[in-house]
Amino acid sequence: MKIELNDLDPIERFSFKVVAQGGRDASGNRVIKDEDLPIYLGSVRHSTIEGIEYLIIASDLQGNVFEGNKPRLLGEVLPDFLQLLFEIEFEGVDRERVGVLLCGDLYARLDKRGGLGDVKNVWRAFNDKFGFVAGVAGNHDDFGEPEAFKSFVQEEGIYYLHNRVRKVKTLKIGGLSGIIGRPDKPFRNDESEHLKELKKLLLAQPDFILLHEGPNNVNPELPGNHKIRAVLERSKRNVVCCGHNYWDSPLIEMENGTQILNVDSRCIILKIEK
Fold this sequence. Notes:
By secondary structure, the chain is of the alpha/beta class. The chain contains 5 helices and 20 strands. The strands form 5 sheets. Strands 1, 2, 3, 4, 7, 9, 11 and 20 form an 8-stranded mixed sheet that branches. It has a 6-stranded mixed sheet with strand order 12-13-16-17-19-18, with helices on one face. Strands 5-6 form a two-stranded antiparallel ribbon. A hairpin with a 5-residue loop joins strand 18 (251-253) and strand 19. The model has no long low-confidence stretch (mean pLDDT 95).
């Protein structure tokens, strides 16, 4: 199985609002600016996946869209746009045969950058428009109280992943939520434990491994975690999707054949091909 991106130009862009870097101007006024989420096309070649025609993969959807005066999270609104895009670009595709993979950080505030917030409705919005949603949590994500989270992960079509592999139709997806950091903070994991669980996922060799925090890369120079890169370099070939750090080049291939697809602040639609 091999991922290929059609070209470097997005087929569409979706506008949203973010707090500008620094958050406020010289007078102390909050500064909101416009951004565009690029949407790219690609394919999964030499696949044995059955029952799924397309995968939508996205991460770090950290923005808001105003509907009148009411802001909504970018990820709550984006699925409606993607549904329309499919009707135009991929006429006749059954939306139940389209899966969604999310790599975390789906929350954004409008009073400052960063923050932590509930993202359950982002997952539900994608699940409502397409066949299923599988994903991991980022360090800016929250899922409410423990009982609400327990109920959420049992909803039909929702596949939350942390230290496990799940099978959706014939697609095997592994996932490791959070980032390496202080375990007393939300979705931060002890370094040794995080790397140990990553090694287990790599040994299982599912079709896709979803991470929030991904590796760095040396050539071209791309930001990320060098210890995650070292683990990936020593493992068998896998396909890894991640976010957390923005890459100018979204797809790289390591010497061992492992492909890294970084979808930070991007949405990539992959057609499943034999």
